[in-house]
Write a structure and sequence with these properties.
Fructose-1,6-Bisphosphatase, Chain A, domain 1; D-Maltodextrin-Binding Protein, domain 2; 8-stranded mixed β-sheet; 5-stranded mixed β-sheet
C-alpha cells in the first residue's frame, strides 16, 4: 500500500461516501428531478445531494476550513487555514443523459508564503469504475497504488488530445474552431469526453497525451491540474504562462509535446 497524508484519506472517504447514491441515481436517471440554472448548465438533485454529503465529511474533519463549491458557492472559513475546492459531479450533462463518464473532484488550496494560492492535494474519483486518481504536491500522482506518469510520446502525429467544445452560450465557438483547425491536422485524434476533471486525470495517467479547454471554473480543474503536474506534465494558459485560474484557460500535456501544442493554440488565436 502506498502511504499518503491524512488529507487524502479524508478526501477519499468523502468521495466514497457520496458515490453509492450517485451510482443509484445514475441508474434511475430518468426519474431525477432536474432544474435549469442557465444555458446547458443542468443541476440535478443528485449533484446537490452529493455535494451535501461531501461537505459534511470535509467539515467533520476540518471544521474551520473554508470551501469553494460548485453548487454552494464560497463558504468562509479561517483565513489562515487552507480551503477545500469541490465539484461533486463533473460531467453533469453526461450523467443526465445516461453517459457513464463523470467524476467527483476535491482539492485543497493553501496559501504560499507570498500569499498566492496553490493546490497541494487533489482527488478525481470516477464512481462507476471505482478509479481514484490522487496527488500530493511533491509526492507524485497516483491511481490507487500505481504511480502515474504523463505520456512519453514525442511526435504529435502519434498523440490523442482531449478538449471541450463550446455549447449553448459557453465559450467562443469561432475561437475554438480556429484552435481545432490548427491542432487537428497535427495529431492522431481529438476527443471530447465531457468531464474536464477526468480529462486532466487521464492526461496524468497517459491515456491522453494532451488537453485544452477554456471557460472552466476552479472546481473543474484544481485537482486535475495538480495530477498532471505531479505526473510530470505541464499545465499553462494559452499564452504559455501560469495564469490558468485567472484566465480560465488550460493546456495540459506531457513535457514532450506541451510547448508544441501551446504554440499551435497561441498561433491560431493571433
Amino acid at each position: 500500500m502506498v502511504s499518503h497524508s491524512g488529507l487524502i484519506t479524508v478526501m477519499q472517504r468523502a468521495a466514497h461516501k457520496a458515490a453509492p447514491r450517485l451510482r443509484r441515481d445514475f441508474g434511475e436517471v430518468e426519474q431525477l428531478q432536474v432544474s435549469r440554472k442557465g444555458p446547458a448548465d443542468f443541476v440535478s438533485m443528485a449533484d446537490k445531494r452529493a455535494e451535501q454529503t461531501i461537505v459534511e465529511e470535509l467539515r467533520n474533519a476540518r471544521p474551520d476550513w473554508g470551501l469553494l463549491l460548485e453548487e454552494g458557492g464560497e463558504v468562509e472559513g479561517n483565513p489562515s487555514k487552507p480551503r477545500w475546492i469541490v465539484d461533486p459531479l463533473d460531467g453533469t450533462t453526461n450523467f443526465l443523459h445516461g453517459i457513464p463518464h463523470f467524476s467527483i473532484s476535491i482539492a485543497v488550496e493553501e496559501k504560499r508564503p507570498d500569499g498566492r494560492p496553490e493546490i497541494t492535494h487533489g482527488l478525481v474519483y470516477q464512481p462507476l469504475t471505482d478509479e481514484g486518481f490522487w496527488a500530493e504536491k511533491g509526492r507524485g500522482a497516483w491511481l490507487q497504488d500505481r504511480r502515474l506518469r504523463a505520456s512519453s510520446r514525442r511526435d504529435l502525429a502519434d498523440c490523442v488530445v482531449g478538449t471541450g467544445i463550446p455549447h449553448c452560450g459557453r465559450g467562443v465557438p469561432a475561437e475554438w474552431s480556429k484552435i481545432y483547425g490548427a491542432v487537428a491536422p497535427h495529431v492522431s485524434g481529438v476527443r471530447r469526453f465531457g468531464s474536464a476533471a477526468l480529462d486532466l486525470a487521464w492526461v496524468a495517467a497517459g491515456r491522453m497525451d494532451g488537453f485544452w479547454e477554456d471557460d472552466l471554473d476552479r472546481w473543474d480543474t484544481a485537482a486535475g491540474v495538480l495530477l498532471v503536474r505531479e505526473a510530470g506534465g505541464f499545465v499553462s494558459d494559452y499564452r504559455g504562462s501560469d495564469r490558468i485560474f485567472e484566465r480560465r484557460e488550460y493546456i495540459a500535456a506531457s513535457g514532450a509535446i506541451h510547448s508544441r501544442l501551446q504554440k499551435l493554440i497561441a498561433g491560431a488565436l493571433r
